[in-house]
Amino acid sequence: MLEKIKEVMAEAINVDPADVVPEARLAEDLDIDSLAAVELSLELEQEFDIRIEDEELAELKTVQDILDLIEKKQNN
């Protein structure tokens, strides 16, 4: 799943896939601002067929948080 997230992030918000590691912080390490976060969430929703609520989006701080959220949503 991490590889797919790397692809989505590279396409949606122009992040270097090599920088997308579980411990990477979205704002500090990947320079993802609020607009980019919204774009990313839309792409993730489409790619993984899930819905990310605004409150959930605000809680995402690292790539691992994204992985955990997607996994949780796919198992429900």
Task: Please summarize what this structure is.
With 76 residues, this protein is mainly α.
Describe the structure.
There is one protein chain. By secondary structure, the chain is mainly α. The chain has a single domain, classed as ACP-like (Non-ribosomal Peptide Synthetase Peptidyl Carrier Protein, Chain A, Orthogonal Bundle). The chain is built from four helices and no strands. The protein has helices at about 1-15, 35-50, 55-60, 65-75. The longest helix is centred in the middle third of the chain and has 15 residues, at about 35-50. It starts with a helix and ends with a helix. The relative contact order is 0.20.
Write the layout of secondary structure elements.
Blueprint: H1 2-13, H2 34-48, H3 54-59, H4 63-74
Helix pairs in contact: 1-2
Family: Belongs to the acyl carrier protein (ACP) family.
Keywords: Cytoplasm, Fatty acid biosynthesis, Fatty acid metabolism, Lipid biosynthesis, Lipid metabolism, Phosphopantetheine, Phosphoprotein
Function: Carrier of the growing fatty acid chain in fatty acid biosynthesis.
Mean pLDDT: 96
CATH topology: Non-ribosomal Peptide Synthetase Peptidyl Carrier Protein, Chain A
Please give the number of β-strands.
Answer: 0
Q: Report the end-to-end length measured between terminal Cα atoms.
A: 17 Å
Order of helices and strands, N to C? HHHH
Shape by Cα distribution: globular
Low-confidence stretches: none
Please state the structural category. mainly alpha
* CATH arch. level architecture: Orthogonal Bundle
Question: Number of DSSP helices?
Answer: 4
Family: Belongs to the acyl carrier protein (ACP) family.
Pfam families: PP-binding
Main location: cytoplasm
GO molecular function, one term: acyl carrier activity
